[in-house]
Amino acid sequence: MTSEQNNKKRNYMIAASILVILCVASVFIFKKRTDNQSIKIGALLPLTKQASQYGIATKHGIDMRVEEINNSGGINGKKIECIEFDDEGDPAKAIVGYNYLKEKGVSGIITGVISETALSIVDQFSNDDIPIIMTTASADDVTFNKDSGKVYQNVFRIGVTNSFQGEKAAEFAKSRNKENAAVLFCGESEYSSGLKDSFVSKCKNLGINVSITENFTLNSVDFQRQLENIKSKNPDFIFIPYYRDTIALILSQADKLEVNCMMFGPDGWRGVTKYVPDISCLKNKNYFYCDLFDPDEPSGSAKPFSEEYQKKYGEIADLCSVAGYEAIQVFENAVRLGGNITDNIGNTNINCISGNMSFDEYNNSKRKVVIIRIEDGEEKFYKKI
Q1: 234-287 tens-digit pLDDT
Q2: 299: closest CA among 383, 182, 197, 187?
Q3: Cα separation of 319 and 294, whole Å?
Q4: CA 120 – CA 99 distance, rounded (Å)
Q5: Residue 128: per-residue pLDDT
Q6: Which tens digit of pLDDT belongs to each residue from 118-171?
Q7: CA–CA dist 336, 179 (Å, integer)
Q8: Is the pLDDT of residue 2 over 60?
């Protein structure tokens, strides 16, 4: 081989090496650019098993707002990529799901459909720097540890606390001049027992006598003994803090036992009219519950949102779907502002579906509630307080 041939071969090998380096570099650059094309957010929700009735509605709200954002060009030119994990309403699986989403590099996580899963991972949340937006978990300790006095700086709640709803129930009783109250609750449920404690405490402050508190166990279907005991105390107001499927059974049995007085519940009552075995048990009754949202509220954006939601999913929007939608609105606003997302969420002051959204010193949303009345077997907007 001549010297000229050697030079040509050497030049060829150098050129080939440069080409390989450029190819590798371009792949790396392309991958890096691809990775930065979206804003990843995690959705840790119960999508199967019993709690899925709440998780799926939350997912629909999330999906609806994400689709609107992406169809309008994204946030600062980037689309939102929502990564889901089904925790099945199981606290142990919620921990697994949190770690999975963290490894995926999400910029925030929307979770906390029920208190049990939220409480199982909140300590782990507080040790990381990922902003967490809880939806409807109502246990007070979700954002604030009473024992240590610690506020979880990166955990925020769209919904309201047990304390807030329990106090509103007592205030409503007082506004209707009720003097003798009773409570029927599930002692094995953080949601139910927390609401009971708050209600009883507020009643004491307001001068309302709580003459009896009756407890039932998880998965109960027969409430005759508890209702008979309550009836014997002749209350003029009964607070029943639990979820709609069980409430439907309680109201039906109360009707048969002729327990006729005002009854009041928290947001867990939403949709109870769909679950009662016989709608006639709700006729001519004095039943109310509080919520953060009602599709028939005459003011604000509740009605147009509800119409669009029903058109899209074929079902009526509820608190869970609204909380999912609003969680994305809060996250979206924080990202658009630039800088630290967690700090921006803490300083939120925007109009959402259910009204103005901002957070107090405990990272709980500051808001009013709507009162829903069950009238002629239908759930109707009554007032906002």
Answers
A1: 999 999 999 999 999 999 999 999 999 999 999 999 999 999 989 999 998 999
A2: 383
A3: 8
A4: 13
A5: 86
A6: 999 987 777 788 999 999 999 899 999 888 888 999 999 999 998 999 999 999
A7: 50
A8: no
SS3 251: helix
Q: How many residues does the chain have?
A: 385
Query: How far is the C-alpha of 41 from the C-alpha of 110, rounded, in Å?
Result: 8
Q: Decide the pairing of beta strands 378-384 and 262-265.
A: unpaired
Closest-CA residue to 44 (of 90, 114, 98) = 98
**Residue for token digits 């994204």?**
74
Instruction: Record the tokens describing residue 1, joined without a space.
Output: 């081989």
Q: Specify the amino acid at residue 38.
A: S
Is the separation of the CB atoms in 100 and 85 below 8 Å?
Answer: yes
Per the CB < 8 A criterion, the answer to whether 326 and 357 are in contact is yes
8 A C-beta contact, residue 381 and residue 294 = yes
Q: Model pTM?
A: 0.82
The residues near 133 (Cβ < 8 Å, ≥ 6 apart) are 108, 109, 110, 111, 112, 156, 157, 158, 327, 330, 331, 345
DSSP 258-276: T--SEEEE-GGGTTGGGT-
Q: Please, what are the domains in the chain?
A: 38-160+298-357 (3.40.50.2300), 163-291 (3.40.50.2300)
Q: Is 88 helix (H, G, I), strand (E, B) or coil?
A: coil
